[in-house]
Amino acid sequence: MSAGVTEFEALLREALAPVDPPDDLLARMELRLVNLTELAQDEFEAWELSAMRDPRNWARPAAAAVLGASAGTALVVLRVRSRHRSRRQQSHNLFELAERTIQDFAEEARRVLPDR
Amino acid sequence: MAEDIPTNKAELDARFSDLYRQHLRDVYSYSYYRVGNHYDAEDLTEQTFLQAYRHFERALRESNGRPLRPWLIRIAHNLAANFYRDRARKPVSTLEDAGIIAEPHTTESLVESREELKEILEGVGKLPDDRREALIMRFALGMDNREIARALGRTDGATKVLLHRAIRQLETIVSAGTEAGG
Asked: Is B24 on the interface with A (CB under 8 A)?
């Protein structure tokens, strides 16, 4: 019985042989990741820091990060949020804290998102 | 065992690059046997790695050094379930196509062998979803019981039983088909 099972399992292994992906899938997938992060990068590059002194404009880059959604953009938000906590104790006032956080957000986005 | 988590984006990306180069074939094979055609398998593979990239840092942190292949396959498993739910359909082509890819025939004996493999693949397609998936993970991907258990969210013991029953049921299906066919 066990020999039969072994033989059957050998056939099963042969039947369910691994399937090689198309040669270009790896390259296409890397390109897809880059493209997705670039979509969000366009949003960040269009965003002028001077305009961000008005708190009413703060929602837009945050929305870009969320809508750009994939891959690197999510990491930008996470890292900036993490540093924001430690910065809060060092800043003299709320405005300075906000400005530093926004600058950090832009710098982190440039670092995380790939060069074009 | 504590996992060495990359501290910057470049290191994290390099680790992720290693991961998908190492497991692209696994994810693709799993996807192919789930959806039954190359077009959807490519799509499912891409979606799996995009999803994995988004949560990679956390996965590294929470894996405690364990292999990430079960986590990847679990993502593919969930996406495949959504794939069927969204499209409200089962695979358009059967698994028998995979046999053609795996073993091109050149002689009469190989043709006979291919018939046997074809019957087995047809039998795999008739199994309940959980049993079929366990067999794909074991035989197409070479995953051990523990890895399969993690991918399916089951205990090691339950996975062992699942695999055993899957093989027994498949043997019964194939035997019945052979006898019916003369």
From this structure: yes
DSSP A52: G
pLDDT tens digits, A76-95:
444 444 455 455 555 555 44
CATH topology of domain B1-93: Rna Polymerase Sigma Factor; Chain: A (1.10.1740)
User: How many angstroms separate the CA atoms of A111 and A107, rounded?
Assistant: 6
Three-state DSSP state, B88: coil
Residue ranges in B127-155 assigned as alpha helix (H):
129-135, 145-152
Measured in residues, chain B has a length of: 182
- Give pLDDT tens digits for B67-104: 999 999 999 999 998 877 766 555 544 554 544 444 44
Rg of chain B taking only CA atoms, in angstroms: 18
Percent of residues in chain A assigned helix, strand, coil, to nearest 5:
80, 0, 20
What lies within 8 Å, CB to CB, of A106 at 6+ separation is: A44, A47, A49, A61
Residues of chain B with C-beta less than 8 angstroms from the C-beta of A9: 139, 167
For chain B, what are the domain ranges?
Answer: 1-93, 107-182
Which chain B residues have a beta carbon less than 8 Å from that of A16?
Answer: 33, 98, 121, 124, 135-136, 139-140
Cβ separation of B102 and A17 shorter than 8 Å?
A: yes
Task: Kindly indicate whether the domain formed by B107-182 is annotated with CATH number 3.30.70.660.
Answer: no
Instruction: Report which of B71, B67, B57, B64 is spatially closest to residue B7, judged by C-alpha positions.
Output: B57
Separation in Å, CA of A15 to nearest CA in chain B = 5
Judge whether B24 and A21 are in contact, CB under 8 Å.
Answer: yes
- Picking from A21, A32, A33, the nearest residue to B24 by CB comes out as A21
Q: What is the DSSP letter of A53?
A: G
